[in-house]
Amino acid sequence: MSGTNFPCGSFSSPNGIPTTKVTMPALIEMKRQGKLISSLTAYDYATARLVDEAGIDMILVGDSLAMVVLGQENTLAVTMDEMLHHTRAVRCAVHRALVVADMPFGSYHGTVAEGVANAIRFVKESGAEAVKIEGPRVELTRALVEAEIPVVSHLGLTPQSVHRMGGFRVQGRSMDAALQLKAAAHALAEAGAGAVVLEGVPRETAAAITAELPIPTIGIGAGPDCDGQILVLHDLVGLSFTPPAKFVRRYADAGALIRSAVEHYREDVEHRAFPADEESYHLPEAALKALEAQEHAATLRKA
Ligand code: KIV
Predict the structure, then answer these.
(1) Rounded distance from Cα 236 to ligand 1 centre (Å)
(2) pTM above 0.90, yes or no
(3) Closest CA to ligand 1's atom 5
(4) Is residue 196 a contact partner of residue 156, using CB atoms and an 8 Å limit?
(5) pLDDT digits (tens, 9 = 90+) for 111-148
(6) Which domains does the chain have, with CATH numbers?
């Protein structure tokens, strides 16, 4: 596929939200200026557009799509092609936020060269402006930055390590584990990562890393002291079907809203209350008269 042409839709900026494009250097500058970074996941055109127009700084096409969109048990089975497909749709919707594609399990676990080749696919084929990588993959991070691809690292509870961790468990709870996380975050920053997602780590560990790191930390289940926060959109709006984790705050119940709208529609169809005459197309007067005359003539002929 040749060079991309993103975004694809029209742009409006309701609510007076600034339209200046968010870039990776801009996120680092936000940290320097003490401005907090808002981030959410999105997986399709409609939701990405709403998230962007609401002024969110960074949109992650997370591999959590495996669970919240594709209904799978964990994130492991989602493929490069599925991630590319969704990232392309998100990129078409987004004008301001930084669009980050999550590299799926298996796409960077072989050689560094394979990881770089797959990351290049995200940039070329889907318009991603950065990739996210789970774990302390320092050599790969350096190679991606060499290849001009901004990197968001992801430490702590890394869902692609679910089998090694023995479940989704808070990480970095002992002093040793906290020091290890800190060392990994420093190594990734030195290798050129632009930001680090800290997931499922104690508030104190995240705060210590945030205070020392020159690049922003984006927390999820990591307390309020990070440089920014990220949540899965479906958790935020009540569209996930599992009990929310402790760190999730539900801001809306879109599930109830959609269910009620759909039930209302079904009832209207069953009672011929939808569509109404105003929701129907009509024959022009002359065509209607001609049709009636023809039907009348046919009835007379039969009689
Ligand atoms: O896949 C995802 O949604 C994520 C975020 C939770 C950070 O990795």
Answers:
(1) 13
(2) yes
(3) 62
(4) no
(5) 999 999 999 999 999 999 999 999 999 999 999 999 99
(6) 14-257 (3.20.20.60)
